[in-house]
Amino acid sequence: MNSATRRQQIEEMLKNEPNDEFLRYGLAMEHLSAGEAELAIRQLRDLIALNPAKPYVPAFLIAAQALVKLGRAGEAIPLLRDGVAAAQKQGNDHAAGEMQVLLDSVE
């Protein structure tokens, strides 16, 4: 199955489940795989904003990594700080640690 087909399937499923975090994350990853970093970052930021009380933690790291690759570390720093805080709040020490390592490398 090629990525366009997978992306189309995800987009179709999102029509029925627009708040499905896993589908939104999957669509962002499809954009990244297709070299569409800006679209992926936008999708990931939207995913983070979808549930402010309990944001989808992996979205912080992937968005920040994409920003760093684009040479926009300054934009990644606040995202990583927020991501570390969200991960810690959710008890996800592994994700918090991964984001802290990236944060330390770009600050």
CATH 4th-level superfamily: Tetratricopeptide repeat domain
Number of helices: 6
Overall 3D geometry?
globular
Instruction: Please bin the fraction of helical residues.
Output: over 70%
> Averaged pLDDT, please?
94
Give the topology string: H per helix, E per strand: HHHHHH
Quaternary structure of the protein: single chain
Total domain units: 1
CATH class: Mainly Alpha
Q: End-to-end distance, in Å?
A: 40 Å
Strand content: under 5%
**How many strands appear in the DSSP assignment?**
0
Describe this structure in words.
It is globular and about 40 Å long. The chain has 6 helices and no strands. By secondary structure, the protein is mainly α. The chain has one domain: Tetratricopeptide repeat domain (Serine Threonine Protein Phosphatase 5, Tetratricopeptide repeat, Alpha Horseshoe). The mean pLDDT is 94. Helices cover 79% and strands 0% of the residues.
